[in-house]
Amino acid sequence: MKIDFIVQRNAVSVESVLRENGVSRRLITKLKRTENGITLNGRHTRTVDLAGKSDRITICLPDQKTLDAADTLCVPIIYEDENFIIFNKPAFMPVHPSVKHQGDTLGNFFSHHCKGLTFRPINRLDRDTSGLCCVAKDAYSARKLQHTISKVYCAIVSGEIKEGGTIYLPIAREKESIIKRCIRNDGQEAVTHYSPVMYRNGCTLLDIRLETGRTHQIRVHFSAIGYPLMGDELYGGDRSLIHRQALHCRKLTLRHPVTDTEMKFEADIPSDMASLIK
Question: Of the residues 49, 104, 126, 207, which is catalytic?
């Protein structure tokens, strides 16, 4: 994959242009070791060489490592171009392969759909959390996207929450568990903003924005204040009506890694969550 950068001023080094456009030092080092990894107006160049206004610097991204491809999976694609892809991940599908999940993950589907590319998820969702997941197709796009992406989740909790607010409670690993998290004074800072959308059938549908990104943050925070997510057995949720935590990443906003255009994506609440509030 190639990415072009048009120089905006005179007498500037190639490396300066690349760094200003978000290319990491690590990637620049890789490109320098690759034949024609960096070119200026179509010719091989050194990073110390000077470029002028309207010159074109091109980087040719190196070959990538791939996961095993899975052609039996189906994941809805919300958007795709040569730099990144937005999936609407279904519940019960892990993002990454693990000991217990080989071949049934979003990463495996990506490797089938985008043959030859490394799987670089920008936002990671729990296995049972559904919704939008952004995956970069190259190292440059991954680095740029990580700094511009913002997310809105929707969750359905037990009980009625009438007003919005913010939860400030530190989160730590439960000492006797590899997976479970808890509220503890010596934990990492965690901040969750929420606003109620509707109350129905003993449940509240919430819109949620995270200021921090701790493991299980939404699940732990709402359990701690007495409103566990429906279906979240690990943190005290009622599983009689839904068999996974009622959590969905419904909105992503980001800036395109090459054009810098703001882009917004949405995914409707899935049917198992919608049935709780119909």
Answer: 126
Per-residue pLDDT tens digits for 135-150: 999 989 998 998 899 9
Domain 151-248 of CATH type 3.30.2350.10: yes
pLDDT tens digit sequence for 46-57: 888 888 888 888
Name the segment(s) of the chain with CATH classification 3.10.290: 2-60
- Fill in the amino acid letter for 51: A
Residues of the chain with CATH 3.30.2350.10: 64-147, 151-248
24-44: burial string, b at 16+ Cβ within 10 Å, e else: eeebbeebeeeeebbbbeeee
Q: Report the alpha-carbon distance of residue 99 to residue 123 in Å, rounded.
A: 21
Whole-angstrom CA distances from 253 to 76, 80, 165 are 18, 15, 22
**Backbone torsions φ then ψ of 194, nearest 5 degrees:** -145, 155
Class in CATH terms, 64-147: alpha beta
User: 68 an active-site residue?
Assistant: no
Q: How far apart are CA 252 and CA 249, in angstroms?
A: 8
pLDDT digit string, tens, across residues 190-201: 999 999 999 999
